[in-house]
Design goal:
The complex is a heterodimer of chains A (122) and B (433).
Chain A (H helix, E strand, L loop, with lengths): L3 E5 L3 H13 L3 E5 L5 H8 L3 E5 L1 E2 L2 E2 H10 L8 E5 L4 H10 L3 E4 L4 H13 L1
Parallel strand pairs in A: 1-2, 1-3, 3-6, 6-7
Antiparallel strand pairs in A: 4-5
Chain B lengths: L6 H11 L4 H8 L3 H8 L7 H11 L3 H4 L1 H18 L9 H7 L1 H30 L1 H26 L5 H37 L4 H11 L5 H5 L4 H7 L6 H20 L2 H11 L3 H8 L3 H10 L6 E5 L5 E5 L17 H7 L5 E7 L11 E10 L11 E9 L8 E3 L25
Parallel strand pairs in B: 3-6
Antiparallel strand pairs in B: 1-2, 1-5, 3-4, 4-5
The chains are: A alpha/beta (122), B alpha+beta (433).
């Protein structure tokens, strides 16, 4: 496929595992673990899909997502949100902030692959 | 009555009110009239034994005369008024109020303290369950770790031809994460243990009474020996915090004392030796009612009998637990208990061999019980008054293997029995267990 994905997540072993399965699936994977500089990283890499953790140190994933949706060049960038809480409230917040998909930890590898593939084909 | 907050002036007012001469009061408390005069004009400090003596002669509480106690009470009343805000308490008359109606004033102050305590408890519990940052953080870490382990493990399990470097790396990651997960789980367990500690401080009066009785094994040697009054035992009990719990416990102990005075444990032991611990046989031998016999048997430490008493509404008013037969603490009990059968036909004693479902009932001797139950009028009969019945059920471990055993529950929520016409609400054990 040759498409690129940027994973914004602060848990090193999740980064390693998710990078591995996406690479094996043919994706070009970049990772970034600092929430403060996430927007700059997205601008620099201009990925096809962003996987964004909600709980990042010092900043909420929702804030990053809102900023993405306000900027014209990233308004339509497909974003998969990862959260550790599955309540309806969180799902609503993610949808309101403009997430394309929402996934609750702990997810399976197959779910991640399916979600990321569906986001670029949509 | 006192309009001032100075102790000396208040002593003078009290004395004059009672028509007592200064010299008379001074003589009775053993000081010179001139010294008392100095005190009354607030030119000598007074406290300790002299204050107590003067208060006794004037027949008032020392705290009413003491500036310190009243000042503290007044301060608490002011706080209460400030916190209530717009209720319109006459703050300017607070001293007058405390002086005129000291009992009411103390009640207001005590209630303010109680309200504050309850608010704190509610806040603590709400915080812990929903907003506790430590809990949220720990749960988040546990979920993150589980996510990493799940993802890594499935890579190892499902990826054919994985490079040795990657494989080693993932093994190392899983090992690290398993360690973190163990720590996270321990932190959660520690937290939940702490949460139950907080719960302990918000016990209901009923629970306080249960704890009070249980910690003393339902046996009061001082009452048996006649060496203490129920009031003394209640006053000395520091585990009865609320006034309601103290009142409930007092009624139980008063009945215990009546029961003990009518039948000593020595006499009871002799009777048990002759006929065994059958409460009907004991009642017939001694000439008491079977409810009384059951209460005395329950107070016999070596018998280790269980006892439940309920009022006419079926509410359990006394429960002495016995190993192997659960007595619900909060929920209503199982309607199949012989206790309630006895309640439906007053004065007719019921005897039945029972076991509790879900506890391997009847499989072993310890879990089968002989239940003796009877419902009797609570008060002495009166003309044209319907009696209020009270049910007693004594539980003794049953050794007979051959007899039939009836299976009953504890409370619907934890009872696995299917197709029960007595069921009130679904069981949480219906599926899976």
């Amino acid at each position: 496929m040759g498409k690129s994905v940027l994973l914004i997540e602060d848990e090193p072993n999740i980064i390693e595992a998710v990078s591995f399965i996406l690479s094996r699936d043919g994706w070009k994977v970049d990772t970034h673990s600092n929430g403060q500089t996430a927007l700059a990283a997205i601008a620099e890499k201009s990925p096809d899909v962003v996987i964004l953790d909600v709980m990042l140190p010092g900043i909420s994933g929702y804030d990053i997502l809102r900023a993405l949706r306000e900027a014209p060049e990233t308004r339509n960038l497909p974003v998969l949100m990862l959260t550790a809480r599955g309540q309806t409230k969180d799902r609503e917040m993610a949808e309101k902030a403009g997430a394309n998909r929402f996934m609750t930890k702990p997810f399976s590898n197959a779910e991640v692959l399916e979600a990321v593939r569906s986001l670029v084909n949509a | 009555m006192p309009k001032t907050s100075l102790t000396g002036s208040r002593i003078r007012e009290r004395r004059v009110l009672q028509g007592l001469k200064q010299s008379e009061l001074a003589g009775r408390v053993g000081v010179s009239p001139s010294y008392l005069n100095l005190i009354e004009h607030n030119r000598r400090r007074i406290g300790g034994k002299l204050l107590v003596d003067i208060a006794a002669v004037l027949d008032v509480e020392p705290s009413l005369l003491a500036e310190g106690a009243e000042a503290a009470l007044i301060a608490r009343l002011r706080h209460a008024a400030a916190e209530a805000g717009e209720e319109g308490a006459e703050v300017e008359a607070v001293e007058d109020f405390a002086g005129r109606y000291p009992g009411w004033a103390r009640l207001v102050a005590a209630q303010r303290q109680q309200v504050a305590g309850l608010q704190r408890s509610v806040e603590t519990l709400t915080d812990r369950l929903t907003h506790d940052p430590h809990l949220a953080q720990t749960l988040h870490e546990v979920l993150d770790t589980v996510t990493a382990i799940r993802s890594t493990a499935s890579i190892l399990a499902e990826t054919r031809e994985i490079e040795p470097e990657w494989r080693d790396r993932f093994h190392r990651n899983i090992n690290e994460d398993a360690q973190r997960l163990a720590e996270g789980a321990q932190a959660l367990v520690g937290f939940l243990d702490g949460a139950s500690d907080a719960g302990r401080s918000v016990r209901s009066p009923q629970e306080e009474v249960d704890t009070f009785l249980e910690s003393r094994q339902f046996h009061f040697p001082d009452l048996e020996a006649g060496s203490a009054r129920p009031e003394d035992i209640i006053a000395a009990a520091d585990d009865l915090e609320s006034a309601s719990a103290a009142a409930q416990a007092l009624r139980i102990l008063e009945r215990y004392l009546d029961d003990a005075e009518a039948l000593s444990l020595e006499t009871l032991r002799g009777a048990v030796e002759r006929t065994g611990p059958d409460p009907m046989a004991i009642a017939a031998q001694i000439g008491i009612d079977p409810g009384h016999a059951m209460r005395r048997l329950a107070a016999l430490p070596e018998l280790e009998a269980g006892l439940v008493i309920c009022d006419a509404s079926g509410t359990l008013t006394f429960r002495k637990p016995v190993e192997g037969f659960a007595l619900p603490r909060f929920a209503a009990a199982c309607p199949l208990w012989p206790l309630f059968r006895a309640l439906s036909r007053p004065m007719v004693p019921v005897i039945e061999r029972v076991g509790q479902l879900g506890r391997g009932a009847g499989q072993t001797d310890e879990q089968a019980f002989t239940a003796y139950a009877v419902a009797l009028p609570k008060d002495a009969a009166a003309w044209a008054a319907d009696p209020l019945y009270e049910g007693h059920m004594l539980l003794l471990p049953s050794s007979g293997q051959a007899e039939e055993l009836r299976q009953v529950g504890a409370s619907c929520r934890i009872c696995p029995r299917a197709d029960c016409s007595a069921r009130r609400e679904p069981s949480i054990m219906a599926d899976g267990f």
